[in-house]
Amino acid sequence: MTDQKPDVKEFSTAKDVELDEPSPYRNLSPEDAALMRSYEGERGRKVVRKIDYRLVPVMAVLYLLAHIDRGNIGNAKIEGMDKDLGLTGNQYNIASTIFFVPYIIFEIPSNIVLKKVRPSIWLSFLVVSWGIVMTCMGAVQNFKGMLACRVMLGLAEAGFFPGAVFIVSSWYPRHELQQRLALFYTASAFSGALSGLLAFAIARMDGLQGIRGWRWIFLIEGAVTVAAGLVMPFFIIDSAERASWLTDEEKRFIDLRLQLSGVRAVTEEGDKFSFKLLGKTMIDWKIWLGIILAWANSVPNAAFKFTMPQIIKQLGFVTQTAQLLTIPPYFCGGVSAWLVGRYSDKLAWRFPFIVGPLSVLIAAMGILFGLSGNVKGNVGPMYFGIVLAQMGIYPLLPGISAWVGNNLAPSWKRSMGLAWLLAAGNLGSLVGTNIFLDREGPRYPTGYGTSLGIVVLAMIAAVVLESTLWSRNKKQKAMSETEIRTKYSQVELDAMGDKSPLFYYTL
Question: Which chain regions cross the lipid bilayer (predicted)?
């Protein structure tokens, strides 16, 4: 793809990049241009690594805890939770689904709060809150109590992922973003593996202190989350301005590289909250195509998150073995997410690294649906299909978040847009938690069929988004930067956000 221009405008810390002419620093003051040149090469990479070490691991750990706490209901189910609570019919599906109702509703409000409150305070509050709710799950006595806890859990977790995505997107140029998002989103894949391992170990405590094993799963994992949330204010970084581990010169370098890549506006014009901006953000066509793409992640992801232990058990394995066999699929999904994110950033191209995993997911759903009529005779291929599905699912959301987030400006629009993308994208989770029906197992025609149809729809959306962005970038090149700057002031250009004639879309 030769029509993609952002690389000319971005500062890169890659080893062998030769800057195109004219210089990307031509619009900077002589002092700032000299500063940027002094940070080319290893010196600049060293600053980026300092950010990586302090930001990404913390977000990864918290996201891992979030996914363990929302998904461990599936592990608790096969340890006897449904029988002890007297769940009947589709009550388990309802309990799984109800989590996503407050989760979807409160994602945008939470990101609005995040823009006004320090991330270290707001995110830590959310972590402690959902940890307390998770601990309470260990004490529920009936279906109503479980529903109440799942609603509160969804409310508490709602703000974390969109907030984390926005925070990470605020620290890196556009083509350094996906591999960072993939690293902490990979934690959600590993959470599935770790959740199975923890459930296997904790469930051995069944009967200790007269408490059932599935209750210990909630009690222990909730207590760990509360403890993590209490220390997070000391580990979550708020902004470069507040980072004592950065020198003033390094802070200026970070600010300039974000300006050069279009992540941060030169002026604050147009970068303020307003209901008008919120309305325009919610009807942005790029976000709506991203939402369709996000459904291809959320539908099968939610379905497998809450039913994988049961699906594997129906292959003929005992409960303990089924818990352990959830580990390899999630591990492979995490590795896949990281590799795809790394190469997407390296090639500065999102499209093929989204349609590729979608193709893998289509193949996996085809295998599972095609062979599920004879489970006993196809245990190996069926399990391979489960592994393959996770390898297709987990690279999707980091890629979609990076692709849409890269094409939203200014920062207020990116904050609300990412929250809206993830909130509406999670509507697919409402579908995913209700399509794998116990009465249809082990064939699950509704589950596999619905997932397959949505993935195909997402493939079409990806093609439409790529071709439209490519066409608009081509039109942008019709006018030179000199002509644009003659016609518009910097304040006017910043106020236009991603509609600025100097804003080139990431393909």
Answer: 51-68, 121-140, 152-172, 184-204, 216-237, 285-304, 351-371, 383-405, 417-437, 449-470
Residue among 340, 292, 281 at smallest CA distance from 464:
292
Amino acid at residue number 431: V
Contact 414, 405 (CB under 8 A): yes
The secondary structure element, H or E, covering residue 87 is none
Distance of CA 264 to the CA centre of its chain: 21
SS3 for 265-283 is CCCCCCCCCCHHHHHHHHC
- Tell me, what's the pLDDT at 306? 62
State the amino acid at position 89 in one-letter form: G
* CATH 1.20.1250.20 correct for 6-267+274-499: yes
Domain residues of the chain, as ranges? 6-267+274-499
Residue 268: per-residue pLDDT: 64
pLDDT tens digit string along 128-153? 999 999 999 999 999 999 999 999 99
- Alpha carbon distances (Å) from 453 to 114, 448, 456, 474: 36, 9, 5, 32
| Segment (H or E) for 65 | helix 42-77
CA distance 262 to 436: 43
- Residue 435: name the closest of 111, 96, 171, 184 by CA: 96
Of 10-19, 209-218, 379-388, which gets the smallest average pLDDT? Answer: 10-19
Residue 267 is predicted with a pLDDT of: 64
CB 153 within 8 A of CB 95: no
Band of pLDDT at residue 90, cut at 50, 70 and 90: confident
User: Hey, what are 476's tokens?
Assistant: 């942008």
Query: Between residues 217 and 207, which one has the greater pLDDT?
Result: 217
